[in-house]
Every structure is written in structure tokens, then in C-alpha cells.
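[Primary structure, fold]
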Amino acid sequence: MRVVLLTAVLLVGAAILLLREQRASFLRPGLRLNAYVSTADGNVSVVDLVRLRAIARIAVGPGLSGMREHPTRAEVWGVSSQGGYAWVLNARVNQIVARVPVGAMPFALDFSVDGNRVYTAVSGSDAVVAIDCQTHAVVARGRTGHEPVLARATPNGKSVLVVNRRDASLGIHDAATLSLRGSVAVVAQPEDVAVMADSSVAFVLSRTEPRLSVVDLRRRVLLTNLQLAGRPSEMLLKPDGGELYVISPEAHGLQAINTWTHEVGDYVLLGSAPTHGVLFPDASEMFVTDTAAGRVAPVDIYNRRVGRPISAGQTPEALRFDSSDPDVKPNLLLVVNEGSGDLSVIGLRGGSESLLTMIAVGERPRDLAVKLF
């Protein structure tokens, strides 16, 4: 009995020590680091990433989508597709402080470079809307093509790109007035866009076509449609803009595209159904979820090698690091498991990448945001 008791005490002590070692130790007194997970029942679960436990569950509204943390304010924003509004969560008090009507069926949002505005495409109204982040008032509205699904601000702050799904077009709007400057025909049923840091070129992705459109934003013309190995699920642009990585469940891997020559380069086999990915700030390593295998695959970008897979839960989807600071190496990798309704926390310190814990967050979790405040 003494041996059993001593062993139990040692195991508990080791577990506590491990969790303390892996938690976010860079926080100064008074700072908080939380993850926010939206669920299918219209709630947002708040997870304390220092103590590694859920601390709140907030009722928001139906059809939550496009959740993002504000770049400078202690706020998390998102849209209710069914409710037709953008919502604002005050992170300090864990309360919804505003619901801003924008129109029928918004799906995503994006912040301006200075964080003063948020843009959202309104699919049911064929419009793009700008909201003042301080007053929560709609300050501009522009007409778009049919069924806009995404609005993305360019890095230079001069334009807002709108992906029009039914029109198969990319609209280029003035960032201040949202008036249409030009429209470029792209791949059928487009859903996402990535923009080079100098705002010169945009890459438009369709999840129904094994092709990727490359658009010259200065001349407002289509440069080419690149043929891919399979229908893509996500694309990630390297911070320096040199490469674009396209993940495809159908092709069981990712392709690297040279953004200067617009040529498809290396292919890396990842697993059964790779779906979503996230890059280290220095682009040395990528982590990709495999929804069929229930794991995350580390990918050495420099050498194009896949590391030992990490168990993550049932149907892992969205993933994020605990820090988005380009000068800080992340400590934790957070993975939303849609099938098992939890948030997996993976430690990244000391060269070993392993699952630390899984935190229940609610039925069919979807989007994930992280906020330090």
C-alpha cells in the first residue's frame, strides 16, 4: 500500500509539473490568455490557456461563423449567418456587448490594417459592409457580385477584395467607400483569397475545383489558373510571400507554389484527409490536421519532411497557436475536434510535440480565436 500511495503521489506531482512547464509562462501579472471556440448550438466557450480549463460559456446566436480576435482591442468578433448580424464579445467581462445588423447571410469578416474597421460580405444581399470598431456603426456599404462569401482587406489598406461565389469573380473595392474599382473572372465557385504582402497579387481558391486562380491586383487581370493535384481545402501563404502551400484532402497532401513564377513545385504526402494547417512565424514548420485519422502532422517546410503524427481527437478541424506574435515562438498548438466536442492542447516546448490535455467545449465546435489581453 505504501508503494502504491507513493507511486500515485509521484504521478500526480509529475503531471502538475508537466502542465506548469507547458503552460504560457511568458504572461506578466494581470495579463490573460484565452481561447474562444464557437459551437453549433450558438454558444462560444472560453478556455483559460494558463490554467488549461474552460471558464465560461456565452450564448451568442444561431449560425455562428467567421470568428476573429480584434488585433488591438480586448474583443472577439464574429457573425451570425442565420441572424444576419455581426457580434462583439468583450473579452474582459465575457459578455456580448453589441450585435450589428448587416443583412442576410454573412459568413466571414476581416479587420482593416489599423484595426479601426471590420469588413464582412453579406451573401443574401449581394453587398459588402464596413463597421466602425469603436462605435459599432455601419459606416459604408457597397454592391458586389452575386453571393459574396468573403471580404479581405489588402495589406496596404487601400482595397477590400470580395470573393463572389455565384459570379465566379473577385471584386476589387475601395477600402474607404467600398465602391467597386474592378472585377476579375476567376475559378468556378471561389471561396477564399490570399494576398501578397505588397498587395500586388491575389490567389483565389475554390473547394470544388482542382485549380487556383492568380490575379494581378494592380492591372486587375487574371494571370493564370494553376492546375492542382486535387480539390483544395485551404491555402497558407508564407510570411515572406515566397511560397503558397495548398492543402488537399483529395490528393492526401500539400503542394508548394512559387508565388514569383506562379509554378507548382514540391508535393508532400501527409495522410488520409489533410484539411487545415498553420505555419510557425518563421515558416520553418507547419502543422496539418488529418480529419480521418484524428491526428496532427508536423511538416518540416525546409526539408519537406513529415514528422511523427500527434494524436488530437476525433475529427480535428481548425487549429491555432497560442500566440500570433511573429517574434515569439508559440508554446501551445490548439486543435478543435468537431467529432468529440473538445479542444486539444498540444505542447510545443523543448523539441517534443505531444498532447497535453483535451478540454470539453460543446457540441460540434467550429471556429477558434485566441486573445491575449
Observations:
- Residues 19-25 have pLDDT under 50 and may be disordered.
- Residues 2-22 form the longest helix (21 residues).
- The radius of gyration is 21 Å.
